From TrEMBL:
InterPro entries recorded: O-mannosyl-transferase_TMTC (IPR052346), TMTC_DUF1736 (IPR013618), TPR-like_helical_dom_sf (IPR011990), TPR_rpt (IPR019734)
Location in or out of the cell: Endoplasmic reticulum; Membrane
Coiled coil regions in record: none
The protein, known as: dolichyl-phosphate-mannose--protein mannosyltransferase
Gene: Tmtc4
Ranges where the DUF1736 domain occurs: 311-383
UniProt pathway: Protein modification; protein glycosylation
Length: 758
């Protein structure tokens, strides 16, 4: 409510504002809760939000962090900053068919700054920024909730009045400690949601500032409306949900600034009542401001559409099975079931999971499925709240319920599957903004109960208990996000039918070298989802390494039949076929992999190995050269070229390739070793010695390095040093091939020299 007095002789304008505020019911009046000065309230919220998530500060990079941060070339200094505006969140070109079209350049820019200041991929700095962002957002929520719950009023000095200090503190605490926010805070990729929320709230507060100098609602600041639009655009460049703030600003303007009665307006429109002016639609510049918001939003969406292209992102059935259902009924009923589960996560955030896809939530295919009850409960509650929001005679109730529903539903719309298919079933991160609406509704319900309750303190203790339980749950869940092993295993009890959970547990075990346990989880992933090609590929790889080649071939062949463009599976199938000495089939598999992934250096490397086994030396060198062109730091390809040229007597060419490789990868000790061998054979002993010593300094426990340096000294005539390095080599590896024979030859030679000298 915006108030102003035209009478210049008014004795105390501040009193007028407080008096007018009392004409509406005050939520704080019947609530037994802490009343703190604004500064202290914000300090308490900041401290509690920090304590909830502080234990995530030294966590690892987990789950999606690998693709969005570690493997994202956009974070590195060599990538031009301009490329960020043409790439998606994962570093792929937006024009690519494989792009997810998630356009968040400002979030990626903050990752890049983190990387730059940390001097590499050190997760602590990334986690600390996420925690600080959540604390900042939670503090801003005190101001936001004071407006949403208490209304918008300013003093004669232009200072905004907090008319609901108790309930705004409670709502902000509920937001700060909600466990569903853990994914956004403890998972570094959640930075997108945090930055989006920050600018989302700043846009809302900026829009409220537009009415600071208001005179009976007729005057407003166009500057602050435009600032609000710009902040909304920035929010969208952090994550797509940010654009929804423009719609919420319009709703807030209509309900709070213009005190629009939606039901009354609908009735007048239906009856073609000419008194729409009195309904508030045309008063106070509402249409002009909404036009500004809509024009700004349309412009932002158009620019984004031009940048990202018109094609929708390509998702698979396992990402979002309901969206691939043939029946419209099945799609609709499952979408609504997903909404009910999201609502349940807000109400009871105990069962949390990093991924809800791949069979975690089986499709509802019949009305006889008992889960239909969840849909009925959701819509029963929503319809009841909507009726109260529209039909209540209490304008205060109408305003709070409508704003609560607006903040609950509107930010969720981009994730609802209503406008476009999304790449997930449920994602806890997308509930970060809608939880604002939940906190409004919860706090309003608490105030109503307090009004009816005789023992208000017992009710306050119960709410304190909820806050404490949520805070403990936040701390526990944050600890699970500290490492992939804990995160993935925590999901086994929540989503035992989720093939991706078993796949990720298996992958984590395989990365740690526990292949036997990994096989068990990969097999379970394939059992749960017989079309899970990535699990088949990884299982086939492990079986290949364990020399179980026939089963590996079966799995990889099945994977490429299911997904014919799966390049990695084609390459791995080629490796297995090569091991089975079916060379023609292996060659065909390699070329099929390259056909589906043009820039595939590892496949060219393996193709080169095949050609080398077949003594097709020119083809092998060409394949390895292609690998190094595509990936200049491909050490194995460079090494194989040097060794092949060395073995075929092309020492000059081998030397040239070795020098070229070391210019690109100057600290690679294996390249130093290979080039040192070539130089030794070319009788460039001094240079060869220098490279051998440099390689040994980098890798002092390599027996072959000491053994070959000993051979160099042996040829060079430096027999004492040769003897020393033969002995070091044999100490490191007593079975080193050829070293013992050479050492014995040297000893006999030394004995002969001693006899001659004697």
């Amino acid at each position: 409510q915006i108030c102003n007095q035209h009478n210049a002789k008014a004795p105390n304008l501040e009193q007028v504002f407080h008096r007018m505020a009392q004409t509406e019911p005050n939520l704080d009046h019947d609530v037994s809760w802490f009343l703190l000065p604004s500064y202290w309230a914000k300090m308490v919220v900041a401290l509690i939000s920090f304590l909830c998530f502080a234990n995530s500060y030294d966590g690892d990079f987990v789950f999606d962090d690998s693709e969005a941060i570690i493997n994202n070339k956009d974070l590195r200094a060599e990538t031009p900053l301009g490329d960020l505006w043409h790439h998606d969140f994962w570093g792929s070109k937006l024009s690519s068919n494989t792009s997810h079209k998630s356009y968040r350049p400002l979030t990626v820019l903050t990752f890049r700054v983190n990387y730059l200041f940390a001097g590499g991929f050190y997760p602590v700095g990334f986690h600390v920024i996420n925690i600080i962002l959540h604390c900042t957002i939670s503090v801003l929520m005190v101001d936001v909730f004071s407006i949403l719950l208490g209304g918008l009023q300013f003093s004669n000095k232009g200072r905004r009045l907090n008319l609901a200090p108790k309930t705004s503190l409670l709502a902000a605490l509920l937001f700060a400690v909600h466990p569903v926010h853990t994914e956004c805070v403890a998972g570094i990729v959640g930075r997108a949601d945090l930055l989006c929320a920050l600018f989302f709230l700043l846009s809302f507060l900026g829009y409220c500032k537009a009415f600071r100098e208001n005179k009976e609602g007729h005057n407003f600041s166009i500057f602050w409306v435009l600032v609000s639009v710009i902040l909304g655009a920035i929010a969208m460049l952090c994550k797509e949900q940010g654009i929804t703030i423009l719609g919420l600003n319009a709703v807030f303007d209509a309900l709070v600034i213009n005190k629009l009665n939606v039901l009354e307006l609908i009735q007048k429109l239906l009856h073609k009542d000419k008194s729409l002016e009195n309904a508030g639609l045309l008063r106070k510049g509402l249409l002009f401001r909404i036009t500004l918001l809509m024009s700004g939003g349309a412009s932002i969406l158009y620019i984004r559409w031009r940048i990202m292209g018109t094609g929708p992102p390509a998702f698979t059935e396992v990402d979002n099975p309901a969206s691939f259902a043939d029946s419209l009924f099945v799609r609709a009923i499952n979408y609504n079931y997903y909404y009910s589960l999201n609502a349940w996560l807000l109400l009871c955030p105990w069962w949390l999971c990093f991924d809800w896809s791949m069979g975690c939530i089986p499709l509802i295919k019949s009305v006889s499925d008992w889960r239909i009850i969840a849909l009925a409960a959701l819509w029963f509650c929503l319809i009841g709240l909507i009726c109260q929001a529209l039909c209540s005679e209490d304008s205060h109730k109408r305003r709070i319920l409508t704003l609560g529903l607006g903040f609950l539903i509107i930010p969720f719309l981009p994730a609802s599957n209503l406008f476009f298919r999304v790449g997930f079933v449920i994602a806890e991160r997308v509930i970060y903004l809608p939880s604002i609406g939940y906190c409004i509704l919860f706090t309003y319900g608490f105030s109503l109960l307090s009004k009816q309750a005789k023992k208000k303190k017992i009710l306050a203790v119960a709410v304190l208990g909820i806050l404490l339980i949520n805070a403990i749950r936040c701390a526990l869940r944050s600890s699970q996000w500290r490492s992939e092993e804990q995160l993935f295993r925590s999901a086994l009890s929540v989503c035992p039918l989720n093939a991706k959970v078993h796949y990720n547990v298996g992958k984590n075990l395989a990365d740690k070298g526990n292949q036997s346990a990994a096989i068990k989880y990969y097999r379970e992933a394939v059992r749960l989802n017989p079309k899970y090609v990535h699990a088949m590929n990884n299982l086939g790889n492990i079986l290949k390494e364990r020399n179980e080649l026939h089963e590996a071939e079966e799995l990889l062949s099945l994977a490429v039949r299911i997904q014919p463009d799966f390049a990695a599976a084609w390459m791995n199938l080629g490796i297995v076929q090569n091991s089975l000495r079916r060379f023609e089939e292996a060659e065909q598999s390699y070329w099929t992999a390259i056909k589906h992934r043009k820039k595939y250096p590892d496949c060219y490397y393996n193709l080169g190995r095949l050609y080398a086994d077949l003594n097709r030396h020119i083809d092998a060198l060409n394949a390895w050269r292609n690998a190094t062109v595509l990936k200049p730091e491909h050490s194995l390809a460079w090494n194989n070229m040097i060794i092949l040229l060395d073995n075929t007597g092309n020492l000059a060419q081998a030397e040239a390739v070795g020098r070229e490789a070391l210019e690109l990868i100057p600290n690679d000790h294996s390249l130093m070793f290979s080039l040192a061998n070539v130089l030794g054979k070319s009788q460039k002993y001094k240079e060869s010695e220098a490279l051998f010593l440099k390689a040994i300094k980098a890798n002092p426990n390599a027996a072959s390095y000491h053994g070959n340096l000993a051979v160099l000294y042996h040829r060079w005539g430096n027999l004492d040093l040769a003897k020393k390095h033969y002995e070091v080599s044999l100490k490191l590896d007593p079975m080193a091939p050829g070293t013992k024979e050479n050492y014995n030859l040297l000893r006999r030679k030394l004995e002969q020299l001693q006899k001659k000298g004697g």
